Automatic annotation (TrEMBL):
<keyword id="KW-0812">Transmembrane</keyword>
<protein>
    <submittedName>
        <fullName>DUF1232 domain-containing protein</fullName>
    </submittedName>
</protein>
<dbReference type="InterPro" id="IPR016983">
    <property type="entry name" value="UCP031804"/>
</dbReference>
<keyword id="KW-1133">Transmembrane helix</keyword>
<keyword id="KW-0472">Membrane</keyword>
<dbReference type="Pfam" id="PF06803">
    <property type="entry name" value="DUF1232"/>
</dbReference>
<dbReference type="InterPro" id="IPR010652">
    <property type="entry name" value="DUF1232"/>
</dbReference>
<dbReference type="GO" id="GO:0012505">
    <property type="term" value="C:endomembrane system"/>
</dbReference>
<feature type="domain" description="DUF1232">
    <location>
        <begin position="49"/>
        <end position="85"/>
    </location>
</feature>
Length: 126
């Protein structure tokens, strides 16, 4: 997966996808993306971890994936599966600061956040 999808990752493409589809993707998917993004920005994180993250984010960005993303809820289930897999692989790198940065950005974009959704995702990762 790492080589196949990592070529689709760029920070610019990521922000464009989130800006365009964040509401339809939902806070849980966007939270997963943001966790990966903030781990990727950490200078202490190794190259192999960053490749795993780039592949997962590249899959998220890729317009043609397993299930069409414009389909509400179901369209992002494959993306969420890939994000959860990647997050579980790099979970040791998810610091309290990474979580807080992701939550802050999510609150900025979505306003009120369903804390249970975020905890549900975190429980699948850790």
């Amino acid at each position: 997966m790492e080589n196949e999808y990592s070529k689709y990752y760029s920070e610019k493409s990521l922000w464009e996808k989130i800006k365009k589809f964040s509401k339809s993707a939902g806070s849980k998917v966007v939270y997963g993306v943001l966790l990966l993004f903030y781990v990727m920005k950490d200078k202490s994180v190794g190259v192999k971890t960053k490749l795993t993250i780039a592949a997962a984010l590249g899959y998220f960005i890729l317009p043609t994936d397993g299930i069409f993303d414009l389909t509400p809820i179901i369209g992002y289930s494959d993306d969420l599966g890939v994000l959860i897999f990647a997050l579980s692989q790099i979970s040791a790198n998810i610091t309290p600061e990474v979580k807080q940065n992701a939550r802050n950005k999510l609150a900025e974009w979505f306003g009120e956040i369903d804390e249970n959704e975020l905890l549900e995702l975190e429980n699948k990762i850790f």
